[in-house]
Design goal:
The chain has 9 helices and 19 strands. The chain is an alpha+beta fold.
Length: 349
């Protein structure tokens, strides 16, 4: 009896094993044969060759919308005809041109082996149209994604072949208008340039003042170390006792940066929507000095001018957990890394 059960158990195991092997074989048969990763690197070959300086117009599909980019030769910059107010990020467009212009493949599929429907070419993942400086036009199609070989199917208008490419091209063109917008930088400020900071949270404002900053304003050769004082008003401040916390706070201010664009032309409705009309988290005002040289007269001493900006931090994005932020002189709303905001709040603990 035990022997019979053992035979039945082995038979069932064999059937399961054969089913698994059969499924794997079916998947590999449906996908073009790929060599191992080391051989793929050696077997790469060029399938598109265009110089970045020749691009004049790029149109691509994104979320059902055609995004059109046009190069302005007079201003030497890229704009989008979808919205003239969108501050197009040159580096993102530059990456598009580099990637498409030097596209490589690991495999070419020809003739009867091409199945446009199963390759996703009848309903493409993305289409890209370009116009070059000499008027030459080109059309490129990214088909479906084959997760067995981790590649996309790709074809172009001057070829009857289909190629396998990695995901770089798709990812490089994976931007809507907001994603194309340039992310602004914060002013480049060194610790010794800061002389006053105020941080408001929950209706209470704390001021931080560097009382040794007078030397900097007089443009003296030797600038003393910053000595920070704090208080609830500028007239009532005392020396900061926790120098490590203050150092972390100032370093955090000097290292502020935005993550992603939420909108590049904010409205009052946007400010309210993202908790920025009456900032939910904090308001930070930074005052600093900046040297301005007269390039036309090298004999003149650099002029030291006072500058400032105010950072408003609102609510949190539910998906990323990052904070919504904007500044007093920006038309945009961005997200900011949680750790950067928490560094600013840390001084109040």
């Amino acid at each position: 009896m035990k022997k019979k059960k053992k035979i039945i158990h082995l038979a069932v195991s064999l059937v399961v094993l054969l089913a698994l092997v059969g499924g794997y074989v079916a998947m590999t048969v449906m996908a073009p044969k790929e060599e191992d990763s080391s051989e793929q690197e050696d077997d790469k070959f060029d399938i598109v060759s265009m110089s970045k300086s020749d691009f004049r117009k790029i149109t691509y599909s994104q979320d059902g919308e055609a995004i059109e980019l046009v190069y302005d030769e007079d201003k030497e910059k890229w704009n989008t005809t979808n919205d003239a107010d969108c501050p197009v990020d040159y580096y993102k467009v530059s990456n598009m041109m580099d990637t498409l212009g030097g596209l490589e493949s690991t495999r070419e599929i020809k003739g009867d082996d091409i199945d446009e429907e199963s390759f996703g070419l009848t309903n493409p993942s993305k289409t890209i149209d370009v116009v070059l400086k000499d008027g030459t036009e080109g059309k490129f199609v990214i088909g479906g994604y084959n997760d067995v070989v981790d590649k996309y199917y790709f074809t172009k208008d001057d070829s009857d072949s289909v190629y396998l490419i990695d995901s770089t091209l798709y990812n490089t063109f994976d931007y809507n208008l907001v994603g194309l917008a340039e992310v602004e930088d914060f002013p480049s400020v060194a610790e010794q340039d800061l002389y006053e900071v105020s941080l408001e949270k929950g209706g209470k404002t704390t001021y931080f003042v560097d009382k040794k900053d007078a030397a900097h304003k007089k443009n003296e050769d030797e600038i003393p170390d910053c000595v920070w004082y704090s208080g609830t008003s500028l007239n009532k401040v005392s020396k900061v006792s926790d120098t490590d916390a203050m150092s972390e706070f100032i370093t955090g201010i000097c290292g502020l940066s935005n993550s992603e664009t939420v909108t590049y032309k904010k409205t009052d409705a946007d400010m309210k929507k993202y908790g920025l009309d009456t900032p939910k988290t904090l308001t930070l005002t930074v005052k600093y000095t900046e040297m301005k040289s007269d390039e036309s007269d090298s004999d003149k001493n650099p002029q030291i001018i006072d500058k400032s900006y105010t950072l408003y931090v609102g609510g949190k994005d539910k998906k990323s957990g990052e904070y919504y932020i904007t500044t007093s002189d920006s038309k945009s709303i961005y997200t900011m890394n949680v750790s950067k905001v928490e560094t600013l709040l840390g001084i109040l603990k």
